[in-house]
Specification:
The chain has 10 helices and 15 strands. Helices cover 36% and strands 25% of the residues. The structure holds adenosine-5'-triphosphate (ATP). It catalyses: D-tagatofuranose 6-phosphate + ATP = D-tagatofuranose 1,6-bisphosphate + ADP + H(+).
């Protein structure tokens, strides 16, 4: 069973307008409301891949109830900790032929006690048959920057594989600790920010994957959007190239990639198959309008067109 963790989920509202005028009344043409947050994107893609998955994290208020009901609609088993503070809305305004303006609420501020209660909740989930865990997205306000160290520690103690997909201090604190996740998936921008250097050439990117900050992390997937990815799988570097596809909405492709990795690792596939599965899920997500969605019927078609080159 795969467990997905989303500490700061949201109800994602999409509003479409022909044009959006500041300081005036704007009437919405089309509205969508979905269960959002990176970990929930991972969850939906895992469900499409027919993987056994349980979703957890923290939810509260009516928006928390909405997220639970959305997950039920697609038969996702969820075991979120309920808190007495409301889950947030995040609004994406689509306007003026291709512009997207985002309005992101910060979400609830958790107390130290709520953080500790979640860790106990996680321990009880991990006492079940969990073998792979994905940890995605930012931390809610109020929790210490090293909160994910405590999360990864519990996952490692259980002997499950941990895929950590976060950024900034939440990631730095884990990488600087003695507690290492099995897999991380930074994109190029996140890796550059992490190492505080520009990584324009492939040689720079390869050296970055060998940086001492990543000692102890088995697998690093450096995702590069439509340019594919560079992967350090233990001591081997692979370059991945993708088929040309028509991208409709690439947002959430990184989350789909994490889902593909978790799915294939759970199935104990070899490195080539894991990398290709991860990339296929990312590409398929880019081809869909909805964030965190894939058309499973096209999986083999894309998978066969992904090429992997061993660089060292
Ligand atoms: P997000 O934060 O939106 O989830 P990300 O920045 O973490 O995304 P990306 O590097 O954009 O992740 O994409 C992850 C993978 O998805 C890529 O390695 C690639 O396989 C696939 N992908 C992303 N964008 C495209 C695209 N435009 N066309 C084809 N495949 C794509």
């Amino acid at each position: 069973m795969i467990l997905t963790i989303t500490m700061n989920p949201s109800v994602d509202i999409g509003y479409s307008f022909d044009s959006f005028l500041i300081g005036q009344v704007n009437r919405v043409l089309d509205v969508s409301k979905t269960a959002g947050g990176k970990g929930l994107n991972v969850t939906r893609v895992l469900k499409s891949l027919q993987a056994p998955v349980t979703a957890t994290g923290v939810l509260g208020g009516e928006l928390g109830m909405f997220i639970r009901s959305e997950l039920q609609k697609i038969d996702v088993v969820e075991d979120f900790l309920t808190i007495n503070k409301p889950t947030r809305n995040c609004i994406a305004v689509m306007h003026d032929s291709g512009y997207q303006t985002e309005i992101l609420e910060p979400g609830p501020t958790l107390t130290k006690h709520e953080g500790e209660t979640f860790l106990l909740h996680l321990e009880s989930l991990l006492s079940k048959d969990i073998t792979t865990v994905t940890v995605s997205g930012s931390l809610p306000k109020g929790l210490a920057e090293d909160f994910y160290v405590d999360v990864v520690k519990r996952i490692n103690k259980k002997g499950a594989k941990c895929l950590l997909d976060t950024s900034n201090q939440a990631l730095v604190k884990v990488l600087e600790s003695d507690i290492k996740p099995s897999i991380i998936k930074p994109n190029l921008e996140e890796l550059e920010a992490l190492l505080n250097q520009s990584l324009s050439s492939i040689d720079d990117q390869i050296s970055a994957l060998h940086h001492e900050l990543f000692n102890g992390v088995d697998i690093i997937v450096l995702s590069k959007g439509k340019q594919g990815a560079l992967v350090r799988w233990k001591d081997t570097i692979y370059e991945v190239t993708l088929p040309k596809v028509t991208a409709v909405n690439p947002v959430g492709s990184g989350d789909a990639t994490v889902a593909g990795l978790a799915f294939s690792i759970e199935q104990q596939l070899d490195s080539d198959a894991c990398i290709k599965t991860a990339m296929t899920a990312g590409v398929l997500n880019a081809m869909e309008k909805q964030t965190g969605a894939i058309d499973h019927s096209r999986f083999n078609e894309i998978y066969e067109k992904i090429s992997l080159t061993k660089l060292s």
